[in-house]
Specification:
With 150 residues, the chain is mostly beta strands. It has a single domain, classed as Acid Proteases (Cathepsin D, subunit A, domain 1), CATH 2.40.70. The protein is 15% helix and 47% strand. The protein is built from three helices and ten strands. Strands 1, 2, 3, 4, 5, 6, 7 and 8 form an eight-stranded mixed sheet that branches. A hairpin with a 2-residue loop joins strand 6 and strand 7. The radius of gyration is 17 Å and the shape is globular. The relative contact order is 0.20.
């Protein structure tokens, strides 16, 4: 469900720890032990590249840090921690994304990579997240094959 608040696009999203999902699939843990977080107010940020989550949610999901990256933010160029991936679900569409850490006073940010993977765009008139009109609103990937000899 999306809502409009002062020109911002907010969406509901569910995040699940991918390592837990794998362990549940292998019957190493029960499905109810998969760590998951439901967020009702994730901010769709077309100016951001990555999926970013506050540190408290990263801890709640039990994600493991695997790298740091230089990022450009309102604070200038800084280092940010990168964590193992989650399965993200928005409007019954799923994708797997690594997670960049932001401070606890920042909302979950759904950036360009996630929007591309989920095949969503922001409708500027209604200020909501919609399926890509170029694909009839259906979740679709674009794959171009160059065949030689044709």
């Amino acid at each position: 469900m999306e809502t409009e608040t002062m020109g911002r696009v907010l969406t509901e999203a569910v995040f699940e720890n991918r390592e837990d999902l794998w362990a549940a699939e292998k019957s190493l843990i029960s499905p109810d032990q998969v760590r998951r977080v439901k967020v009702s107010d994730a901010l769709v940020d077309t100016g951001a590249t990555y999926l970013s989550m506050p540190a408290r949610l990263i801890r709640q999901l039990g994600l493991r840090k695997f790298d740091t990256r230089r990022v450009k933010s309102v604070s200038g160029i800084v280092e940010a921690n990168l964590y193992g991936s989650v399965r993200m679900t928005i409007q019954d569409r799923t994708c797997h994304m690594d997670v960049m850490e932001v401070s606890d006073d920042v909302p979950v940010l759904i950036g360009q990579l996630a929007l591309e993977d989920l095949d969503f765009v922001v409708d500027p008139q209604s200020r909501r997240l919609i399926g890509n009109p170029a694909h009839g609103g259906e979740h679709m990937y674009e794959l171009y094959l160059w065949l030689s000899g044709n």
